[in-house]
Specification:
Length: 224
């Protein structure tokens, strides 16, 4: 177990944490935080006024992974709370915004995934993929060659705008609208797919340009 508390000071990890032998847990609290690759068997808890993720992977065997504060991606990042693929999986939580021209992959297995702030709202991501049980997304913007792919076996909650630049946007599980939702895949042929039911007393706007739009389940069948 490693606990680092810098108050309002900065915390910098220039090398991998738990790269060869996993830590049991990692807790970091500070102002500016720069952290490279992390591997633990238990929880990863990072809190700061500005969090820079400079490594490729942030992985826990079974613990929760929590980022409290705005996150900037400086590499293609994978966050995995189900690294050992057993039946006990941690939750993944981003409490604030996530930005950076990189790809973000979040895999919680049977755990939940929650983004409380916009993803790519200031600096669009190049790709976004989420897999978990209950998945909640505030809004996602992707540019470049990337797609948006979201799977939530326990349901997906959407609130905001989900946009790509001529790339596919797929919601692979039942969707509930928690606010007005716009899904826009650009003008050049990105396809949009809802693979299960869509419900919620909100407005849904879908624009795929020259791409296809597919609803495989009822829309408003339970809650109009």
């Amino acid at each position: 177990m490693l606990t680092v508390d810098a108050g309002t000071g900065s915390v910098t990890f220039s090398g991998a944490v738990g790269g060869s032998t996993k830590l049991t847990s990692l807790t970091v609290d500070g102002g500016q935080i720069d952290v490279s690759t992390v591997g633990t068997t238990g929880a990863i808890d990072i809190e700061g006024t500005d969090i820079d993720l400079n490594g490729a992977t942030y992985q826990s065997d079974d613990g929760n992974i929590t980022f409290t504060g705005p996150v900037d991606l400086h590499a293609n990042v994978t966050v995995d709370s189900d690294q050992n693929n057993d039946a006990t999986d941690g939750n993944i939580t981003f409490s604030s915004t996530v930005n950076g021209g990189q790809t973000l992959t979040a895999d919680a297995g049977t755990g939940s995934v929650t983004f409380s702030g916009a993803v790519g709202g200031t600096a669009a991501l190049t790709g976004f993929s989420v897999d978990g049980n209950a998945v909640s997304l505030k809004g996602v913007a992707v540019t470049g060659t990337g797609t948006i792919s979201v799977t939530g076996s326990g349901g997906i909650t959407l609130n905001g705008t989900y946009s790509s630049v001529n790339r596919s946007i797929d919601f692979n599980s039942a969707v509930t609208l928690a606010g007005a939702v716009t899904v826009n895949s650009g003008t050049g042929g990105g396809n949009i797919a809802f693979d299960a039911a869509v419900n919620g007393g909100q407005t849904l706007t879908v624009d795929a340009g020259t791409g296809s739009v597919t609803f495989s389940g009822a829309v408003g069948g339970t809650t109009a």
